[in-house]
Amino acid sequence: MSYELSGTLDAFSILDVIQLLTVTQKVGELRLESKDGHETASLYLDKENLIHAVYGELEGTQAFETLLGWKEGSFEFIPGRHPEKTTMDKAAFVTLLQAFARLDEMQKIQQDLPPEDINLYIVADIKTVPAITAKEWKVLALVNGKRTITRICRKFGDELTAKNLLLKLFKKKLISPDPPESDWRRLVPSLKPVAEEEGERFRPPRVRTNLLFKAIDGKSHFEDIRRKLDLSENDLLEDIKLLYELQWIKFNETDEEKFKNLLPDI
Q1: Exposed (0-12), middle (13-18) or buried (19+): which is 199, by Cβ within 10 Å?
Q2: Of 114, 171, 223, 224, which sees the most CB atoms within 10 A?
Q3: What is the pTM of this model?
Q4: Which domains, and CATH codes, for the chain?
């Protein structure tokens, strides 16, 4: 299939493409695809109006505002294609002005929050539980140590409201970017000196494992290392297990006992 307009988002922003399509009074679907090809989204235009947006479970304005943050990926315009429903009914320039106002507010809030790709944890040791609203409870229920701010906002459905609520929860010291002291992510590995190991040690076979090996400094806990190398928890644990079995790393007595209890589940 040939498309009337296509390109990459590093060359033309979504804003640039929308402005071109609305100025030229185009009708159809602007299909977007993330750089890795794992995510897709669509914007539907009817001359100067944006009439529908869909991205995963998000629709309408929420989907549109989220998509404005895409800096990489590709786009293609399919003329004449109409959406199954209409979720937006304002001129494109009005929608853009409102969206950028919300994005500006979100950026200000984000300055007081951890990076969006950081996992959040509920603070376990709370001496006095502060009063929280029903909406704050709804966001707090999404914090499980495995979701980032981005994923929590997506689950909640309204990014601006979710970030406002997260900021309130941070100020009430109910959530944190640091795992609990008792959590396995707090374990600190250190390199095992040659003098402590008898016999030959084999080098880790994977490049990823060697990168992890170089990141171990005896001070950083698992979560710090995972963030630094951008590893999934499963990959981190698999490589730590391998380094431990090959006698390249060790733990202090307390952490080693915790790690040994963790081994059967890796």
Answers
A1: exposed
A2: 223
A3: 0.57
A4: 5-108 (no CATH), 112-176 (1.10.10), 184-265 (1.10.10)
